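Input.
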Amino acid sequence: MSIAIPSPKRWTVEECYRLQEAGHLEGRYELIEGVIVDKMGQNPRHARFLSNLILCLESIFSMKYIRVQAPIALPTPYGTYNEPEPDAVVTKESVITYTHHPLPDDLLLVAEVSDSSLDFDRRTKVPLYAKAGITEFWILDVAERKLYVYQEPTETGYRLTHLYTEQDAVVLAA
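Output.
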């Protein structure tokens, strides 16, 4: 006897907007591969590392080019089932000029601070961002105090991956 296992619902970005407008989807979330992922609250360690990252980026780019914990858009077909909300992005133009969520061509850098989400970020977001054309993606590993830098996206992943420690100087591709 065969037992049929129902497949889960794969949500689109548009469906999530409708759910939100109807009051059925509250709080912070991101849509990744059609799955609504709850953005849990930050513990003090995550907040401290994110604050330090923002201060470093601000010293290079100025806050007018930095978006913090706001959605980005991905091109079709990836944008149908994905609306990630990275911890920080650096945009090419001032953030106030965008009338839409920035697309990969609008971004110089996308960064995640990973305290409890390192495995998810590395297994899910790295390939998604590479396929979508995000030119540079950083994962700040809070537990190990390391920075993973991914550059040169392709359909199958990033060509270059660098691992930095606290003693290393990091050079942005931008």
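Strands lie at 29-32, 35-38, 66-68, 88-91, 107-114, 136-141, 146-154, 157-164.
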